[in-house]
Amino acid sequence: MARNNSWWLLALCLAIGIVAFLLLLPSLAQLQTPVAFYILIIMAMIFAAGQYWLLSHSQAALFTIVGAILFVLSDLTLAVNRFKGEFGAATAIIMSTYFIAQGLFVGSVLVL
Q1: CA distance 72 to 92
Q2: Which residues make Cβ contacts (< 8 Å) with residue 59, sequence separation at least 6?
Q3: Are 106 and 63 contacting, i.e. CB atoms less than 8 angstroms apart?
Q4: CA distance 39 to 16
Q5: Average pLDDT for residues 26-42, to the nearest whole number?
Q6: Sign of CA pseudo-dihedral 43, 9, 103, 77
Q7: Are 49 and 65 in contact (CB under 8 A)?
């Protein structure tokens, strides 16, 4: 098995999670802990999907990493819309990225 030096992927996921949390922090009030935990979970998901892609470069892995990125984009858009203020395109962005992500997750299983 090839050696996988993906420290940069972990650092990138942590950086994205920290930036997202700090962006939302002023508006979270008592939801700081649950939001921090949820961001940690979705960053772990994207890290796992990235690892899968880096190790296999398969079609299933490609569907998984793209689906994970779109899912995180959907969730971050939802969080910004909820905690920072509503904006007009939010629903379209949230729903389109969410459903495409779900389709890609299903596709990643079907191509195995």
Answers
A1: 15
A2: 111
A3: no
A4: 9
A5: 97
A6: positive
A7: yes
Q: Tens digits of per-residue pLDDT, 45-95?
A: 999 999 999 999 999 999 999 999 999 999 999 999 999 999 999 999 999
Token pair 């939302």 is found at 24
Cα 86 to Cα 26: distance, rounded to the nearest angstrom: 16
pLDDT band at 1 (very low <50, low <70, confident <90, very high): very low
**Cβ(48)–Cβ(6) below 8 Å:** no
Q: pTM of this prediction?
A: 0.92
Q: In the 8-state DSSP scheme, what is residue 85?
A: -
The mean pLDDT of the chain is 95
Task: Using CB atoms within 10 Å of the CB of residue 6, give its burial: 0 to 12 exposed, 13 to 18 middle, 19+ buried.
Answer: middle
